[in-house]
Amino acid sequence: MTKTEKYLPFVLSLTLPGMNIVNNNPTMGDYDWERVLPVYFLFSLFLLVIWYANYYFLNRENRLTQFLGRYGVILLGNSILILLLAGIDDVLRPEGLGEKINNWAVLYRLSLVVCVFLVIQQVFKTIRDREALKIQNLSLQAENLKSQLETMKQQVNPHFLFNSLNTLMDFIEDDQEKAVEFVRSFSNLYRVVLQSSRRDFVLLGDELKFLEDYWNLLRMRFNGAIELHNYSELSETGYLIPPLSLQLLVENAVKHNLATHEKPLVIEILGLESAIIVQNTLLPKAYKEKGEGVGLMNLQKRFTLLHQPIHYGVEGNKFKVTLPLKTV
């Protein structure tokens, strides 16, 4: 309930009887104030009762409203209160307080006041209902976004796992000692993946440290065919980033580009104010692998839901992705 809705009934219940007194006798003379004031406050009290009775029946459900309908109960209740108040007015009206006013005029004025009350309360109710609906819609949107984000997160872990298992299969066939070393390093990395994937953001320094550990796995596999250069100086800052963002971009670059000792794939990380850039030389494979672009789409959706959209595209002979960073 707003402050206006809270205090307005008191203002109206005190003002309207006073206006009626002034209207009946503009000169304010010949009044027995000892009798006028008690009747004035009695009328004010009755108007408050009418206001809150209407408020109750407009906003609450009970057996009576279910039987007669909401507006049927309002009509019945107001009719009873108006007749009761008109009867009290007829009995207690002091001398000099509008002798020319008959009971029908009193009923008319009371009915008009009740109609004004109902219109005002209906406006308040409409505003409350719209606000409640807006809050409900925002809540549903938040739940929907949360569900989408969880779906995005769940797609990251299998993506990282399956690509690493493919690398492990290559090692098992070619070099079993490297396969053992890879499994040991991979198990430590995957533990970090499981922990970080429960969070929406991680410190940029932690993400860069994870990328360095992941890079050690790639070096074992490609043995000099890939170069990673980190020119960023943001590792000690308090910036935040969705987890596994940099790893996913490096993984995508490796997945979709050729990498040989003659033409190594060069990946660079650059730091800007409130952003970090990951770019790689374009050496596209002759064929497209299944699911190409899914990882980047996943990253775009996660950033859009959590912070701001990413920007990516080809510039010259490089593919460039700009990730906006969030401050703590």
Name of the CATH first level of the largest domain: Alpha Beta
Q: In percent terms, what proportion of residues is strand?
A: 5-15%
Tell me what the CATH architecture of the largest domain is: 2-Layer Sandwich
Structural class of the secondary elements?
alpha+beta
Can you summarize the main beta sheet? 5 strands, mixed
What name goes with the CATH superfamily of the largest domain? Histidine kinase-like ATPase, C-terminal domain
> In the residues, how many domains can be counted?
2
Low-pLDDT parts are 96-101
Q: Please state the overall shape, judged from the principal axes of the Cα atoms.
A: rod-shaped
What's the average pLDDT? 76
The tally of helices reads 9
SSE topology string:
HHHHHHEHEEHEEHEE
Report the helical percentage.
55-70%
Q: End-to-end span in angstroms? A: 36 Å
Summarize this entry quickly.
The chain is α+β, with helices and mostly antiparallel strands and 328 residues long.
Walk me through the topology:
Elements: H1 3-24, H2 33-59, H3 63-68, H4 70-92, H5 103-174, H6 176-196, E1 202-203, H7 204-222, E2 226-230, E3 240-241, H8 245-256, E4 265-272, E5 275-281, H9 294-306, E6 311-315, E7 318-324
Parallel strand pairs: 2-4
Antiparallel strand pairs: 1-3, 4-5, 5-7, 6-7
Task: Name the features.
about 325 residues; alpha+beta; about 65% helix
